[in-house]
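Hey, quick one: can you model this chain's 3D structure?
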Amino acid sequence: MEFDPNRKIFKKLTDSDTGYNGKVHLPMRSLKNNLIDCMSPDLKRRVSEEKEAIEVVLHSVIDGSTSNVKLKLESTGYAFRKFYPVITSFELKDGDFLEFYPVVGEVSEPVNMEFRFSHNSPIDHTT
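Sure thing. Here's the predicted structure for all 127 residues.
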């Protein structure tokens, strides 16, 4: 599986993202341009029009582990649901930076995304 480094979704975690509700709210424009617009027509319709929660498999660059979350369009925008295990596994907190990269080509379900994080500083890609 190959991930596309040119389709980055960047997120700085807030206090509400790291709470027990397990939701991480995602930046609308970045998510639309780098993920939603690259989905198969059926998947795009299901997530954008029918507001169905779809399966997303996150592949960690840090340790190679995978985590299953849901992507859902809510009244406030798109959010990853069931994200709390990722928060606790990697000891993420308010102010940490996340990057997500979808697979190369048309995106289908389950959606596979690579992710990395940095504690309290923008991610350094030189290392």
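One thing worth noting: Strands lie at 9-12, 24-25, 54-60, 66-74, 77-81, 97-102, 111-118.
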